Amino acid sequence: MKLFANTTSPFVRLVRLAIEEKGLSEKVEIQIVDPWADPADFLAANPAGRVPTLITDDGHAIAEAHLILRYLDQIAPDVPIYPAQGLAETLSIAAPALGAAEAATAVIIGRKSAPGFDTDMVGAKRFRTMAEGLARLDANPPRDFAERPDIANIAAITALDYIVFRYPDRNWLADLPVLAAWRERQKGRASVEATMPFI
């Protein structure tokens, strides 16, 4: 399999964390692309030009992180990202984390076309979504990875690390002691360390 990826996208990290936790890293070639440059082989796989995009062993192109995660659960079900037990609770924890990650990327993209994006109505709402998403994770944190990797802790660590990485001018965890302690406990996890965002 081949995964079109970049080194910053939180949606790529969702998939890469799942690949690591499922023990599939040796079976997936990571091809780093600049999605803004529209490389031909990447656009042939995904005309939307979005990472991540997975090419399966039989040549099917699957775009969008959640569709890829669904496929990974099918081919490697022993470590389910969407667990049958406690699924509704797990999804309810993941939801604000995913919303925060979406908002954080929307600001980065918005800045490309509107210099005052951060403080306009849409940008302000996105920052509110980030802060509220992290606050909800503080009030209702996911399981530790050591207990069970799933969409909740994968989404939580992805959102938190991406927001801290992209917006270092704020102390996002200053008033979130539960989430800060949760993040500290995940340090050293091989999948977490191997997939940290960087430029």
Automatic annotation (TrEMBL):
Pfam families cross-referenced by the UniProt entry: GST_C_2, GST_N_2
Entries under InterPro entries matching the protein: Glutathione-S-Trfase_C_sf (IPR036282), Glutathione_S-Trfase_N (IPR004045), GST_Omega/HSP26 (IPR050983), Thioredoxin-like_sf (IPR036249)
GO molecular function: transferase activity
The entry's keywords: Transferase
Entry GO CC: cytoplasm
Annotated GST N-terminal domain residues: 1-80
PROSITE patterns per UniProt: GST_NTER (PS50404)
Protein name as annotated: Glutathione S-transferase
UniProt organism field: Ruegeria marina
